[in-house]
Design brief:
It is a single chain. It contains 16 helices and twelve strands. It is an alpha/beta fold. The protein folds into two domains: 175 residues, MOFRL domain (glycerate kinase, domain 1, 3-Layer(aba) Sandwich), CATH 3.40.1480; 162 residues, Rossmann fold (3-Layer(aba) Sandwich), CATH 3.40.50.10180. It has a six-stranded parallel β-sheet with strand order 3-2-1-4-5-6. Helix 12 links the parallel strand 7 and strand 8.
Length: 419
């Protein structure tokens, strides 16, 4: 573990500790019930789902099962079949895999038990559009929503209207088998109905709200999709009796990962202030707010370091043609606002190792970042204007690259104010 004499290394270690706290190999065994008698089937979807399946078999031994995860996130399981598909925009592999998963679900009986493994990324990977909607239409709408800056809760509500698995519909397909769902939360507020768009949680539906939300964000859905919503979408009663026996349990959440990082910092003599684990909003605006607080703390000339921690899910409204996810954009906006402040270092990363669509977790910023970029003739202000945070930090060698972490509890942001 790096010390405060190496602030950037210290922040990186805190991030990795937050990731480790949400490792399915740790949190799944803690929450697995005794293995039920009779037929047990493991199903799942999400970036962490393959690792969760690996943890189930490490605890119970070989299991029958079928899990869908992101490309590059496959894990060596004994009997559980792992299929890879695309995220954040779904592809045909995800659609085909979801159809297979539904076939398994429909073949279950009253004496069977399902362990459902769900995590962030499940919304795109568990993809079964209603019959009237093509995959191309689904892809187009998904890409537009992700680029618009729309909050994830609104995106998920719209996804539920267009799906035959989301919003409790998968649980209904599994009925009458018993269903236990283990969830790793990547959503602000840890609402089970938002994790992977809630395939095991009832949703009353509101197609009119979906239409209004799309219009509010300036999005025009494909013709068939718009017609489907106008006709009422894909309603399902939130209190459908097929969902009464479902048990949904969150086994890892952003708050737990922030607490793990906070414990390490506290043991190092740092004062920790957790700003929240469910922060949403435009990444660059959140950065300016948090930097203002850090500068205010620095002006107090305290005799100890202060660490500002936060999680949640920020968004980026695409204005330029660059490549940048919300964490790297947060870091870039913070660096610009700090203007080389000599006492403040920061890190902003996604715990799944993928920030936006780039295979980069995020970035680190410190007092030398602006001077270094200027010496290399790389403009921070221009990069921010173009939403090219990844290009900026790649150019100065300040990216955080972890590869697939096999978990996902969303954003991790830490701002360190040195004494």
């Amino acid at each position: 573990m790096a010390h405060l004499t190496d602030p950037n290394g210290f922040l990186h270690d805190l991030f990795m500790a937050a990731v480790a706290q949400a490792d399915p190999m740790l949190c799944v065994p803690r929450h697995l019930p005794p293995k039920p008698k009779g037929r047990v089937v493991v199903l799942g979807a999400g970036k962490a789902s393959a690792r969760m399946a690996e943890a189930v078999e490490a605890t119970w031994g070989p299991c029958e099962g079928f899990v869908i995860t992101q490309y590059g996130y496959k894990r060596p399981c004994q009997r559980i079949e792992i299929i890879e598909a695309s995220h954040p925009v779904p592809d045909s592999a995800g659609v085909d895999a979801t159809r297979r998963l539904l076939e398994i679900a429909h073949g279950l009986g009253v004496d069977d038990t399902v362990i459902m493994l769900l995590s962030g990324g499940g919304s795109a990977l568990l993809c079964a559009p209603a019959d009237e909607i093509t995959l191309i239409d689904k892809q187009s709408l998904s890409a537009g929503m992700l680029a618009s800056g729309m909050p994830i809760s609104d995106i998920n509500a719209i996804r539920k209207e267009l799906s035959v698995v989301k919003g409790g519909r998968l649980a209904a397909a599994i009925y009458p088998a018993k269903l236990y769902a283990l969830l790793i939360s990547d959503v602000p507020g840890d609402d089970p109905s938002d994790i992977a768009s809630g395939p095991t949680v009832g949703y009353a539906g509101d197609a009119t709200r979906a239409i209004v939300t799309l219009a509010t964000w300036g999005l025009v859905p494909p013709v068939a999709t718009a017609a489907f919503l106008v006709a009422g979408g894909n309603p399902m009663a939130a209190d459908d009796p097929r969902l009464f026996g479902v048990e949904n349990l969150i086994i890892a959440a952003p708050s737990q990962s922030l607490a793990a990082a906070a414990d390490i910092a506290t043991m190092a003599g740092v004062e920790v202030r957790i700003l929240g684990d469910a922060i949403e909003g435009e990444a660059r605006e959140v950065a300016v707010e948090q930097v203002a607080l850090a500068i205010k703390i620095a002006a107090q000339q305290l005799d100890h370091a202060v660490l500002l921690l936060s999680g949640g899910e920020c968004t980026v409204t695409r204005r330029g043609d660059g490549v940048g996810g919300p964490n790297s954009e947060f870091a870039l906006a913070a660096v610009v606002a700090l203007k080389g402040h000599p006492k403040i270092h920061l890190i902003a990363c996604d715990t799944d190792g993928v920030d936006g669509v780039a295979e980069v977790a995020g970035a680190i910023g410190d007092p030398s970042t602006l001077a270094l970029s200027e010496a290399m003739e790389i403009s921070a202000a221009l990069a921010l204007h173009k939403n090219d945070a990844h290009g900026f930090f790649a150019g100065i060698g300040a990216q955080v690259v972890t590869g697939p972490t096999m978990t996902n509890v969303n954003d991790f942001r830490a701002i360190l104010v040195l004494p």
